[in-house]
Design a protein that fits this description.
The chain is α+β, with helices and mostly antiparallel strands. It folds into three domains: about 220 residues, Type I PLP-dependent aspartate aminotransferase-like (Major domain) (Aspartate Aminotransferase, domain 2, 3-Layer(aba) Sandwich); about 110 residues, Alpha-Beta Complex (Aspartate Aminotransferase, domain 1); about 70 residues, Ornithine Decarboxylase, Chain A, domain 4, CATH 3.90.100.10. Helix content is about 35%, strand content about 20%. The chain contains twelve helices and 20 strands. The chain has a seven-stranded mixed sheet, with helices on both faces. Helix 4 runs parallel beside helix 5 and helix 8 crosses helix 10. The longest helix has about 35 residues. The two termini are about 40 Å apart.
Length: about 425
């Protein structure tokens, strides 16, 4: 809490914080904006506590971020997981379809909310307007993890932002793609499906009583920058991305997909500022390619089995994209003779059966067992390969043989494990 009245109070803003949040709401065309100082994780937890009560059913895509699991534990809600569309060529998950959401709502008529990931980390946008319509026809709110879409509002060349598609609550990582400091994010509310008073109570419950004023000031500065220069800066990022994508696709062994792969279920449009470079044509895994690029002073956003992802942001210029292209060109020249890497069976495990809710599992007694003997047991911990931070195993799911094989394969590839007590995954915690 502030000791000086002039600095205002995040928990009951009446002065400069209130004014800054109102300016952000106006810019992003929301009814209300909330400053978050514990990242988008805090925003997602706030949305879930505001929209749900213990025991409520929520429709959740299986490729949601691990912060959603925390929101399920805190809210006590019961998840119904739905599967996203899978691109087996790229080896990544896209979004869920409106039809999948409609079917889930029909099967679970007591559901109180729908959660969507929009766009994915790879920049793929689902048919969010249709998903919003499906949710609203059943009288339930749509809450959206738009962590990677804070810039969408500022360009007609990119997918529409979540608020314009009809979302009721939206969490954005202002620190990821705009100019705010790390941990600084925003939550937006629009419409009356989730009462403002519930959002305020949840936000105040989860926020520290000693919020960092530098973080809040950086949110206001980021807002001002986008209000004054956002369209120009995002337009430059779009142009540079498309130029870089074309150049990369001329390099032997590399492939960077674009809008040509859109228009399919779960993949309606692409944020072209995300460049997913497939490196399997060089005989490399994404993880191996990322390590090589780090030696060339290039840091990728993430790597998976086949791809390395890069982000061209509103802050980048030709200088940055030229450096990235030069490094990728060297990577191609150094590895072009290796041939094509075998396609690894690293698609995500099937939708596992839910035996307990995440909250029930959180309080259950647990014990470690060898991973190879975990099939049939209920997972007591979350297993996530980070980035992108999408749980491979969610607490409360019953582990099967396919899931065990998936974990073993990802571990052999050297993917970074989070959430597990034993990060080597020699053992895994299960419900006792």
């Amino acid at each position: 809490m502030s000791l000086a009245d002039e600095l205002d109070d995040l928990h009951r803003p009446e002065g400069c914080i209130k004014s800054a949040q109102q300016l952000a709401a106006r810019l992003w065309c929301a009814d209300e904006a909330f400053f978050m100082v514990n990242g988008t994780t805090e925003a997602i937890h706030t949305m879930m506590l505001a929209a749900l009560s213990p025991g409520d059913v929520i429709i959740v895509p299986r490729n949601a971020h691990r912060s959603v699991v925390g929101g399920l534990v805190l809210s006590g809600a019961c998840p119904v997981y739905i599967l996203p569309e899978q691109d087996n060529i790229l080896g990544i998950a896209h979004g869920v379809t409106a039809e999948t959401v409609s079917q889930a709502l029909a099967k679970h008529p007591t559901a109180k909310a729908v959660l969507a990931v929009y766009p994915t980390y790879y920049g793929v946008a689902s048919e969010l307007c249709g998903i919003a319509q499906a949710a609203h026809e059943k009288g339930v709110p749509l809450i959206v993890d738009e962590a990677h879409g804070a810039h969408l509002h500022f360009s007609d060349e990119l997918p529409p932002d979540a608020l314009s598609c009809g979302a009721d609550l939206v969490a954005q990582s202002t620190h990821k793609l705009l100019g705010a400091m790390t941990q600084a994010s925003m939550l937006f509310r629009k419409g009356n499906r989730v009462p403002a008073e519930r959002v305020n109570r949840a936000a105040s419950l989860l926020a520290t009583t000693s919020p960092n004023y530098l973080l809040m000031a950086s949110l206001d500065i980021a807002r001002l920058q986008m209000e004054e220069e956002g369209e120009r800066r995002v337009a430059r990022a779009v142009r540079l991305s498309e130029e870089l994508r074309t150049a990369v696709n001329d390099l032997p062994g590399l492939w960077c997909f674009g809008r040509e792969r859109m228009g399919y279920p779960g993949a309606s449009a692409l944020d072209v500022t995300k460049l997913t470079v497939n490196v399997s044509g060089l005989g490399l895994s994404g993880e191996k390619a990322m390590r090589i690029l780090r030696q060339k002073k290039i840091q990728a956003e993430l790597a998976d089995a086949r791809n390395v992802l890069f982000v061209v942001s509103m802050a980048d210029t030709e200088r940055e994209t030229e450096r990235l292209f030069a490094a990728l060109e060297e990577l191609s020249l150094e590895n072009a003779e290796k041939g094509i890497a075998p396609l690894l069976s690293v698609t995500a495990p099937p939708n596992l059966a839910t035996a307990l809710t995440p909250r029930e599992t959180f309080y259950a007694a647990r014990e470690p067992v060898p991973l190879e003997r975990a099939a049939g047991r209920i997972a007591a911990e979350e297993i996530t390969f980070y980035p992108p931070g999408i749980p491979a195993i969610i607490p409360g799911e019953r582990i099967d043989e396919d899931a065990v094989g998936y974990l073993q394969e990802m571990t052999r590839m050297g993917m970074k494990v989070t959430g597990a007590k034993d990060v080597s995954l020699s053992t895994i915690c299960v419900v006792k």
